[in-house]
């Protein structure tokens, strides 16, 4: 996945990596909320430090301690059932789930986030932790957009965990002091409840009572890794993580059983049989009675397996001495990640139907062997401490809903899907020659991305890149994304890098200054394309030289391609699309800004414009889940046109350049 990170799907990975006391990857440091001075066990990368801090907190999560607060859980679940009754009586559809889709403004979120499973999960979590629900169910709305902001925060954590210096700019003690915080309502309520419980720790036997007892114990023992700030960070992190886990589990449970109605009826039959014996009665099904429903438990486990709350890799750093997983040995310092999603969908571990919802798999005699590969809560010393609370909530809510309600989809048959964000690229080839430069500079304006192209067999073309980079950064959008591409990889001979001849003046190179310095901060669409040449001698520009030049000028990606064979061409545009999309998701690019180079709209396939004789404008559609799956390329070498077709029929995007007046325009 990176020069020092490997993703593992081998069956031994859980036992050999997650179950061992390996240090966590640096990504975990991001989970310090509200700023980096608030360290919780989850954000501690040292296993010894994390274990010591956890020991003062975990007694509250024991089953019998959590169940002492079951009546309070029932009160909050009853509020959910009350809302369901109201929607049923009014004969209106009720949005139980939490739709996840691209969003870039708070107004966009407000329409789509009012989801009752999320309200329930947050309120129950607040009740269990410190006897203070957040009021979402009481009002039937997302109070102060707290849940909406939580979803944005999850995206932030996912990306910025790999850029810790950015996190320190935004999440620092000064912003905390100013009160500039995400999840403001949730954070304020959590801190106020903890303060109140600290002043009266015996008011109720909730988790906060156990935590403050642990704090007193840590003081007596002189612990250096557990104090009030760690307790506060732990509580805040548990609110968002715990609520998200329960909400995702309930959504998956209801969705998949709606698509498998026989499973819903089988659970109801279990409950009906239990009611004949005097169990599963009351407004809310008790935890004890829910535990006696084997098919309900199987369906919940399968819902968490097929669509669990966490899909990111869980990074661990290989300690001194290395580690062997399967037949591969990894040296000290390598980061190994194990994704629950990958493990849970492995046909090797779960059979050929691994990607199908099938609760019956959990009732098979050999399921004990497979349980070791069920990791929705993580594994080892870094596993979710609140999984006991989550399991209790899931069982009680799921049993009560199936017992009392018939649920169907408003749009029967409509499936969940992996979101594919389509990007329609408008591409301009600036021709790369001086005679078109006065015209092509106008095409840079408002561009969001640029591909600078040089000929790896012509050092003069490489030396001529600088003016094009300068033009792009001076005229394009402020957040320009740039990729450096060396063409004619098919002619390269890496083992025979020739000495460079003296520069020969030409229309391309003599009037252009040598590469070196750069100014400005932005860039635009396609880039510098030089004359097609035949170079039997091999390459003149090494990959190392190109990378060094790009690094010195802030161009983040360099690669080499062959327009003749098509090798690597797809990847260039796919990489550019992902980079631009990531900037949008991180807020670095505002699509509403007319200078961003981004426009909203629908469309797919080709929207080809006309040729102006020196430039070519064309459209390209790519999607973020599988960018540019197929391509047809036309290349040009030594004056001989050559076409090559990958796949049959039209694909997502096919040709880089349009045809004008029946002739091929330009090269590659």
UniProtKB/TrEMBL annotation:
Keyword presence, Transmembrane: no
Family, as annotated: Belongs to the cytochrome P450 family.
Family annotation (SMART domains): RAB (SM00175), RAS (SM00173)
Name of this chain's protein: Uncharacterized protein
Cofactors demanded by this protein: heme
Comp. bias intervals (Low complexity): 506-521
Domain of life: Eukaryota
